[in-house]
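Lab notebook, bench 4. The sequencing result for the construct came back, and we need a structural model before the next group meeting so we can plan mutations. Quick request posted to the team channel:

Model the 3D structure of this chain.
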Amino acid sequence: MTDTTAADAGIASIAKPAAKPARPYFSSGPCAKPPGWSPEKLATESLGRSHRSKLGKNRLQYCIDLMRELLRLPETHRIGIVPGSDTGAFEMAMWTMLGARGVTTLAWESFGEGWVTDAVKQLKLDPTVIRADYGQLPDLGQIDWSTDVLFTWNGTTSGVRVPDGEWIPADRAGLTFADATSAVFAYDLPWDKIDVATFSWQKVLGGEGAHGVLILGPRAVERLTEYTPAWPLPKVFRLVSKGALAEGVFKGETINTPSMLAVEDAIFALEWGRGLGGAAGLIARSDANAAALDALVAERGWLGHLAADERIRSRTSVCLTVEGADADFIKKFAGLLEKEGAAYDVAGYRDAPPGLRIWCGATVDTADIVALGPWLDWAYAETRAG
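Done. Here's the predicted structure in token form:
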């Protein structure tokens, strides 16, 4: 590490660090591939075959089985691979189940706001909206649990997460809809408190985009089979046939044609995760990465956490403030790091306050987080001096 941080250097130029992160991939999606990944390591027998062939369905079912195993998901919950990444999975849940009772939407970052827009402008519902600014969490005590409740478990663009599942009552009347795309495989999720969860492989698993995963608890299945929404449903959203749940969707019979290459890539990541001990091993890696980044922040007076409250701070999509930075400053800062091959895709989300966003999910190596520190100092000094 350099002896002088940018904060102590009077904004003078400091020496360019000699060592770079071995894998400088810190994007919050698609995220870094698992360590040791290469395309040659993917199984290829299913490529060029129909997803409806015995082989294709077996590989899709195996992918589902691995997700269940690693997540320690109860048999009461169903897992389906669906189109459209996490967005498609969450909108599928909204379009098929909302409208049966009142709706409450929580929004403290851009994707939560997206679900508000869907509920108000597309589905024409009149939800209760509970908001908080970036870096904050809404007052969870305001929630009326007679309504369905939509929220992001981990706000990817704000670096704010719900602390746990204790705020969700066991005797709730409404359903919980958790957009958990930056949380699944990174937190020990309380599945008894989650009726609907969605995520994509491109986050903590470092998989490819375009495919979403939909997890349904028994109360969500009951809603699907007992309630018919007032609006038409496109084919890719239909989870019920002749009044019964389309069980095939949760046994590898996807609604539309999946990319078997993406499926094999997800299987590689899941097998890697199983080799670490499953969810516990993946969570431990994320925690170690977040701790290493916390240490970097603590050592630098010009760097801070957007989520000041550690209890609600993300351990995957960590959002940082940079002293004196505006959008142009961050663009130049991140551009310098990319040009040097020291860190890719670390600028904060476009709708968030100007700052950095460092992915700390399980596929990142802690040594690369540590190696990033001197490069942050260098880029800060260069940007301020320039």
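Residues 6-10 have pLDDT under 50 and may be disordered.
Will bring this to the meeting.
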